[in-house]
Amino acid sequence: MPELPEVEALTAFLQENAVGHVVTRVDLAAVQAIKTFDPPLSALGGLEITGVSRHGKFLDLDVSGLHLVVHLARAGWLHWRTGLPPAPPKPGRGPLALRVHLDDGNGFDLTEQGTRKSLAVYLVHDPAQVPGVARLGPDALQVSFEDFALLLTSRSGQLKGALTDQTLLAGIGNAYSDEILHTARLSPFKMADKLNEDELIRLYDAMRAELTEALGRQLGQKAATMKGEKRSGLQVHNRTGLPCPVCGDTVREVSFADTSLQYCPTCQTGGKPLADRRLSKLLR
Predict the structure, then answer these.
(1) Contact, 34 vs 28, CB < 8 A?
(2) What is the separation of C-alpha 271 from the centre of its chain, rounded to a whole number of angstroms?
(3) Is 179 helix (H, G, I), strand (E, B) or coil?
(4) What is the Cα Rg of the chain in Å?
(5) Following CA atoms 230, 231, 232, 234 in sequence, which dihedral angle do they give, to the nearest 10 degrees?
(6) Structural domains of the chain sorted by starting position, each given as residue range(s) with its CATH number in brackets
């Protein structure tokens, strides 16, 4: 899933390559992707892209006052295309969800792999009209330590869920929450409202360090290489069974109905593996 560093890097890429160009046409290939109907996508034709910004994990293209807001969900991505074909794509075929044509013959595709389709596109006059944007908490790279500590200690729930709750903190998903907790040496199942001051400081510093480092690796990358760059920098996420690069212990996994998390027992849980039984009470 694209998270804060990838969406911020895509924002910078589009600022360099798309801003100043006029949208000539928008092709919708997956009807379920579009979540608004007024104004219609056809209203973008002839308008100039004047800016690109990010709200949490949402990408926002300002097209002369209209906002094309995109959430790439778990398996979505943006592909920059040079020399787009003039013929419109066939609806419902393959991963293509939306295609945007620009006046120089280039443009971009929004695609989504797999059968579970969650990629969402909105065309609105104000990004706050998008429900997910309106509910966002403070940005994970902009929140102060004082506000961060207040948010965490006022929430009753596990740290993994707190970090990925977009209404609490915006921008962190499954991968970077694993990385942040590993760097902070904290169990994903530790209760957020039970953190002491030292643990809060470690978690805040780890969050800023991991996201800043990841963003530094992504900025300047082409859209096509960002996914690989993300994978190359991960220490525990999606590395089940491999040695922890910090201590050498084996990275473990806890599986849930539709997702999983990875962690290092030595670095994070005092050497004790966490229970991986979906219906059991998870160890803390």
Answers:
(1) yes
(2) 30
(3) helix
(4) 20
(5) 90
(6) 4-134 (3.20.190.10), 145-268 (1.10.8.50)
> Cα–Cα distance between 60 and 215 in angstroms, integer?
18
Question: By C-alpha distance, which of 155, 150, 153, 143 is closest to 195?
Answer: 153
Residue listed under structure tokens 């991963």: 95
pLDDT band at 284; cut points 50, 70, 90: very low
One-letter-per-residue 3-state SS of 110-139: EEECCCCCCCEEEEECCHHHCHHHHCCCCE
Retrieve residue 124's tokens.
């609105």
Each residue of 92-127: pLDDT tens digit?
778 999 999 999 999 999 999 887 889 999 999 999
Please list, in sequence order, all residues whose beta carbon lies within 8 angstroms of the beta carbon of residue 86, skipping any fewer than 6 positions away: none
Q: What is the pLDDT of residues 32-58, one digit of tens each?
A: 999 999 999 999 999 999 999 999 999
